[in-house]
Write a structure and sequence with these properties.
binds zinc ion; globular; 222 residues; L-fuculose-1-phosphate Aldolase; alpha+beta
Length: 222
């Protein structure tokens, strides 16, 4: 189990990393980490996540109530984060970004579900899209819940990414993989089109994924 001091340092570092990649522009995005079975550490609302100080982070319980009554307001997507931890008890970290290639694919109607890249099929299975709902609302949290129940990473339609992990590094890595896949699709589309991987190859990858404990519910549809 991480100490709170360590958890604060990890979120600050992840914020800097994702901001430097251009995935947390302005005040966008949010990051949370479970301190234990009761408390969550989360980024605050209205502050650029590239320039966070460890003391800026806010501790809330699983209902979103702040541990310190005078704490700054927690992330505007707190409801989304709470929904994730509610529906995935083993998850310890959640990252939401505005990764631009993922958003571009969503805006252009290019699905990230298409089985194209072996490493995505092996690790994430498929990357589904959460239907659009207004940012910062319980409607968005409700839309995310049934999707993240079976997937470790998803697109938020016309909005960004959400990824989870048993560690913050894992949630960040899954975000990186999504954005990489989206960048490849954007380039492939501009070069003439997206060719899915042949079904036989996808099946072989899925067999390997299952042997590593991958969940069948998150596999691409063939
Ligand atoms: Zn957002």
């Amino acid at each position: 189990m991480l100490t709170e001091h360590e958890a604060r340092a990890l979120i600050v570092a992840a914020g800097r990393h994702l901001f430097s990649l251009g995935w947390l522009p302005a005040r966008a995005g949010n990051i949370s980490l479970a301190l234990d079975d009761r408390w969550l550490l989360t980024t605050p609302a209205g502050i650029c996540k590239g320039h966070l100080h460890p003391d800026d982070l806010v501790v809330v319980d699983r209902e979103g109530r702040p541990r310190e009554p005078l704490a700054a307001p927690a992330s505007t997507e707190l409801a989304l984060h709470l929904a994730v931890y509610r529906v995935r008890p083993a998850v310890r970290a959640c990252v939401h970004t505005h990764a631009p290639n993922v958003i571009a694919c969503s805006v252009a109607g290019v699905s990230l579900e298409t089985p194209v890249l072996p490493e995505v099929i092996l690790t994430l299975g498929r990357i589904p899209t959460v239907p659009y709902a207004m940012t910062g609302t319980s409607a968005l949290a409700a839309a995310v819940e049934p999707v993240i129940a079976y997937h470790d990473a998803a697109v938020l339609e016309h909005h960004g990414t959400v990824a989870v992990g048993t560690t913050l590094a894992e949630a960040v890595e899954r975000t990186e993989l999504m954005e990489h896949a989206a960048a490849v699709l954007v380039t492939a589309q501009s070069l003439g089109g997206i060719r899915p991987l042949a079904a036989d190859h996808v099946r072989a990858l899925l067999q390997l994924r299952r042997s590593r404990g991958g969940r069948p519910e998150s596999e691409p549809r063939l």
